[in-house]
Amino acid sequence: MADTLEFNEIYQEVKGSMNDGRLRLSRQGVIFKNSKTGKVDNIQASELAEGVWRRVALGHGLKLLTKNGHVYKYDGFRESEFDKLSDFFKAHYRLELAEKDLCVKGWNWGTVRFGGQLLSFDIGEQPVFEIPLSNVSQCTTGKNEVTLEFHQNDDAEVSLMEVRFYVPPTQEDGVDPVEAFAQNVLSKADVIQATGDAICIFRELQCLTPRGRYDIRIYPTFLHLHGKTFDYKIPSTVLRLFLLPHKDQRQMFFVISLDPPIKQGQTRYHFLILLFSKDEDISLTLNMNEEEVEKRFEGRLTKNMSGSLYEMVSRVMKALVNRKITVPGNFQGHSGAQCITCSYKASSGLLYPLERGFIYVHKPPVHIRFDEISFVNFARGTTTTRSFDFEIETKQGTQYTFSSIEREEYGKLFDFVNAKKLNIKNRGLKEGMKQSYDEYADSDEDQHDAYLERMKEEGKIREENANDSSDGSGEETDESFNPGEEDDDVAEEFDSNASASSSSGDGDSDRDEKKPAKKAKIVKDRKPRKKQVESKKGKDPNAPKRPMSAYMLWLNANREKIKSDHPGISITDLSKKAGELWKAMSKEKKEEWDRKAEDARRDYEKAMKEYSTGSKSESAKTERSKKKKKKQEKQMKGKAEKKGAASKSLSSTKSPAKNMSESFKSKEFVSSDESSSGENKKEDSEEEGVASLPPSSEESASGSD
C-alpha cells in the first residue's frame, strides 16, 4: 500500500464557506493547503480520534475529529474513493472510517450534543446539522431560548448570522437548562470580550489602511484599534506579518495580513498597514509581572523594553500571534533599494520582491505567492519607451499589471524572476528585450525613438512636396496630378523610351517648355538614390574582413570570463568594466595583444592583394561590356529619333485632308481610321523591334525599308 494519498480540488468547510485546496494523507498525519491563502492545516496522526465518511452536497465528505476536540471537514471526494481511504486509515492510523448519513427528514425537534468544539443537533442517532463553536461571536439567553450569533463570512455570498434554540424547562431543581446550554457554548465560542487590562498600548500610530491615527491596545487574545471615528477588534487570526523598508530609507512599513478581514461598512480590509519613522523611539512596560511574561511568552518579551517604535510593535505582535516576520530578501533594485516604484491600477506604490512572493503597498495592498503564479510577463510601456510593465497571472486566472516601472530595473527584476524559476511568458524574446533596454541605459532622451524618426522623415517629404507645388503657377500644379507626367518621370529615370513623351502632343507649347525643367529637377533628386543603391549592391561579400584592434581581440577572448565574474551584468556595464580592465592592464600584456593585432593586419593586407588581383581582370571585362552597351544604346536612340521625325512630317501633310473630311464621317472612314491606328501601333512595335536588334541587323532592316 502507498505511504501517501493525495487529492486535488478538495474543499475544506470553514465558517460556512468552502475553501479550495489540496489534501495529503501520509503516515505522519493529514495536511491540507488552502489554494487561496496558502494556509496549511497539519493534523498529526497521533491526534486523530475519529473519522466519518458521509454524503454531502459536493459528493462525499470526510470529517475528522481530534482528541483535543477540533473538527475538520473536507468535501469533494468520489464515492469510489471510500475503499482506498478506509484501507489507508486502518493501515496507518488504526481507525475505522465510519459511514454516517445525515438526517434529511426535515424535523426541527431533536437533541443537542456538545462534543469538543462542535455542537451537533441530532434526531435519533443521525445528525441533522453541526455548528463549530469557534464560529460563534455572541451567545444570549432568554426565558426558554438561547440565541447564537456568528461571525460574518466575507467569502460566502450568503452568511448565516443567527440561530435560536428553544430549550424546554425540566423538572430538576437547581439546574437551569438555558444557562447550562449557554455555558457550554461560551466555553468554546470565539467571543471577543475586552475583559481586564491591556498588556500594552501604543498611542497615535499612523495607519494607511484603514486610514487614520489609531491607539492599538494589545489584549491576550485580540487587538483593539481605537480611532476618532471607528473601532476595530481583531482576533488573533493573523496570517502573516511583513516588515518592509521604505524606498527613502527613513520609514518602515509594518503589514499585518488578516483572515477574516476587518470591516468598515461594506469595505473589507485584508491588510492592516502601519507606517513608522525610523527615528521614533519608545520605552515600553508590559502590564504583567515578570513571571507571567516569562510563562506566557517564553523569553520572547520582557517586562521592560526600549528601542525603535517599529521594532517594539513588530516584536510584540510576533510574540502575540506566534507568526514569523517576513522581510525582503536579497533583491536590490537599480537605486540600491529593496523595492521597485511602480503603479497598480490608478495609484503609485512600491513592489517588494520577497523570497516566496511579491507584495505591493499600499493602495490597494496585494500579496502574491510564488506557488500561485501561473506565469509572469514583461511588456513595453504603452506611453513611453522609458518604462515597462510587469504582469503576473495566477493559476486562478487573476491578472495583476504593475506599470510605469523604470527601464533600469528591467535587468535586476528579470534576473530575480529567472532565479526563482518562475514561468516567463515571453522568455523567447528576453535576450532582445534585455539588450534593447541596456542599450537605452546610456542614451539621451531624444535618441533611439524609431517612431519619432519616422515622423520626421515623413514631415521632410511633405515639406519637399509642398515646396515643389508652390514653385510653379496654378496650371502647373494641375499638371502635377497628370498621370502622363508620371510616365515621363519614369522614362527619364530609366533612360528608355525617351522619345515617347516628345510626341505626346503639339497643342500646348508652354507645357512642353516647362516639362524639361521639372524633369531635370526630378533627375537631380533621384540620381543620388540610384547611386546609393548601386554602391550597396556593389559590395562584395567575398571581400576579406577588416582586422580587429588589439582591444577587440582581448575583449572577445575575455568576455565570458567577465560575465562569470559578474553574473547578471548588462551589456553596457560589461563594456564599461572591460574598458576599466584594459586601462589598468600592464604594457607587457598589452604588447602581446598588439602583436596579435599586427599579425591580423598583415594577413588582411595579404588577402586584399590576392583579392584585388583576381577582381581587376573581372572589372576590366565588365567595363568593356558596359562601353559596348552604351554604344549600342546611342545608335538605337539616333535611329528612333530619325523615325520619329519622318512620321511627324507625314502626319502634318495628312492634316489638311483630315480637316476637309471632318464635316462628314462614314462608317468606312471610321474603320479606316481604326485600321490606320492599328498600322501605327504595328509600326511602333516594329520600331521597338528594330531598336532591340544589334547594329549589323539594324542596317539590314533599314535597307529592307
How would you describe the overall organization of this protein?
This protein has an 8-stranded mixed β-sheet with strand order 4-3-2-1-7-6-5-8. The chain has an 8-stranded mixed β-sheet with strand order 18-17-16-15-21-20-19-24, covered by helices on one side. A hairpin with a 2-residue loop joins strand 1 and strand 2. The protein is elongated. It contains 15 helices and 31 strands. It starts with a strand and ends with a helix. Helix 9 packs across helix 10. Helix content is 39%, strand content 30%. Among the domains are: 96 residues, PH-domain like; 77 residues, Roll (PH-domain like), CATH 2.30.29.220; 127 residues, PH-domain like, CATH 2.30.29.150; 81 residues, Roll (PH-domain like). By secondary structure, the protein is an alpha+beta fold. Its main location: nucleus. Belongs to the SSRP1 family. It comes from Nipponia nippon. Pfam families: HMG_box, PH1_SSRP1-like, POB3_N, Rttp106-like_middle, SSrecog, SSRP1_C. This is FACT complex subunit SSRP1.
